[in-house]
Write a structure and sequence with these properties.
There is one protein chain. By secondary structure, the chain is an alpha+beta fold. It has one domain: Aminopeptidase, CATH 3.40.630.30. 29% of the residues lie in helices and 34% in strands. The radius of gyration is 15 Å and the shape is globular. The structure holds coenzyme A.
Length: 151
């Protein structure tokens, strides 16, 4: 499996994974806009097929944000997601961004456990954060005291 930069021609496959993974998927134009605005966008490729992706953002000079991550259902629990997070964290480190945040639906226990497994910590609940009023859990990781990203 290899992790590489997203290319424009990957968009349909990314959209497929996005749509199978979220009940409120980002529409294609938003994904393209985010990309054009300079977001980090990596894909995981296995046997020439995209099986996952991660989108992230440098929000402020010293703060990063994971916007979205998803892995094709068939390829979950095989470390694809962890490898995508690891690759994104390496890029943040390269830019000296030590503090990375993300929001995840409170009901998405699997993803919360996944992020914890990758070193993120649950910080607080953001009440009615989503359009359907579900709460989000704000999680973060501080890379400043980690010389190497380990799982
Ligand atoms: C969350 C997601 C990206 C994880 O990707 P993945 O490739 O399956 O994750 P990994 O195989 O790297 O998992 C690493 C560890 O995280 C934890 N984990 C991952 N998925 C989990 C789940 N559904 N339930 C509990 N723990 C989970 C486990 O500790 C796992 O290690 P293990 O398999 O040895 O037990 C994937 O499940 C997904 O695409 N979900 C739908 C989209 C989503 O919810 N995205 C995040 C919302 S912001």
């Amino acid at each position: 499996m290899m992790i590489r930069e997203f290319r424009r021609q990957d968009i349909n496959r990314v959209l497929e994974i996005e749509e199978e993974s979220f009940k409120d998927p980002y529409p294609v134009n938003i994904l393209i806009d985010i990309y054009n605005l300079g977001a980090g966008f990596l894909v995981a490729e296995y046997d020439n097929i995209i099986v996952g992706y991660i989108i992230f953002w440098i929000r402020y000079e010293d703060e990063g944000h994971i916007i979205s991550i998803a892995v094709d259902e068939e390829h979950r629990r095989k470390e694809v997601g962890s490898k995508l997070v690891e690759a994104a964290l390496k890029i943040f480190k390269r830019y000296n961004i030590a503090h990375i945040k993300l929001e995840v639906r409170k009901s998405n226990r699997g993803a919360i456990d996944f992020y914890k497994d990758n070193g993120f910590v649950e910080r607080k609940v953001l009440k009615e954060y989503y359009e359907d009023y579900e709460d989000a859990v704000l999680m973060d990781i501080d890379l400043s005291d980690k010389s190497e990203i380990t799982r």
